[in-house]
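Before relying on records like the one below, remember that each one covers exactly one chain. Contacts with other chains, cofactors or solvent are not represented anywhere in the record.
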Amino acid sequence: MFFSVIEEYSAILTGHTAPKHLLRCENTKTLYRTCNLTGRHELMFPTRKPDAGMDYFKDMFQFMCFNSCPGGLNRRPIIVIFTLELSGVVYGRKVLDVRVCACPGRDKADQESLETRKKNKMKNLNTPPPTPDENKPSTSGETPAGSHNGRIKREKEDEEEFTITVRGRDNYEMLLKIKESLDLMNMVPQSVVDNYRKT
């Protein structure tokens, strides 16, 4: 798995004991280290007894720049790994994907909207167009002699799938409506279409 160490080089923060660490802990007993093997930044802080009636304790953490900072994270994904250790023995581990942003509510809504659009797009791409039921008797009465062969040829041609690249959301939405209309038309018997056109 590829990872790279992200270091914060802000001139304002150079007075801190660990100016290159992106993550800081407000616990005064925190030790800041850099692993010699991986180059990862490490924060070590002691656990403490929880308050009465609680089964956990809280420590405050602060990220020194946003995911969008060009000099730091520059839109790269980051993870924070918490480990519970005693004398070098790891008793627990939790890995968190983290996104640091100025407006979490807006960014969450934007991300959810993007994910919904992606899911809908994939669903539309994976859903084959509906085909008429061949076992269903024709409602138009008898068919002319040559029309059966023409229908089979047309159905074989209709099995082909094509992909169109579209620029612009409005154009995409319009083509999606046209596709859905054509799919619905394929479900309607030809006699109903003919009656509709006569009126």
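The radius of gyration is 31 Å.
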